[in-house]
Design brief:
The protein is an all-alpha fold and 125 residues long. It is 71% helix and 0% strand. The chain has 5 helices and no strands. Helix 1 packs antiparallel against helix 2.
């Protein structure tokens, strides 16, 4: 269940008013911006009138966020990242040196003999 605040009702009214203003600009009809101004006035005075519309609007946003975060990112992972990983495994690439880590009892970290200077920090990327 969505729990909406007075501010979210007001934001919904403002968005609806802005939509009417943009629609009036697009179709070159002066009545739509007047309707948008009336909606804006009502939205600022009594935003609770926009509760049903806000419930629909924020419900749609919740559904779209579920689709985006779980379904699209899951598809992206399984259709892009997994094949690249499998391809690298077939080629025998081991960027993390996991095979060395499993075989040795010591550290597999590379020693880097480098003394940093001021020029190294000038353009770090």
């Amino acid at each position: 269940m969505l729990h909406l605040t007075r501010r979210q009702y007001m934001e919904t009214g403002i968005l609806l008013a802005l939509g009417f203003v943009v629609l009036g600009w697009y179709v070159q009809e002066w009545m739509f911006p007047l309707i948008g101004a009336g909606i804006l006035f009502i939205g600022l005075i009594m935003p609770v009138l926009f509760k049903p519309l806000a419930f629909l609007w924020f419900g749609l946003a919740k559904i779209l966020s579920f689709i985006t975060s779980y379904i699209l990112l899951g598809l992206l992972f399984y259709l892009l990242v997994t094949p690249v990983g499998l391809f690298r495994r077939v080629l025998g690439k081991d960027s993390l040196r996991l095979k060395d880590f499993k075989r040795s009892s010591g550290s597999v970290m590379q020693d880097r003999k480098h003394t940093f200077s001021a020029s190294d920090l000038k353009n770090p990327f």
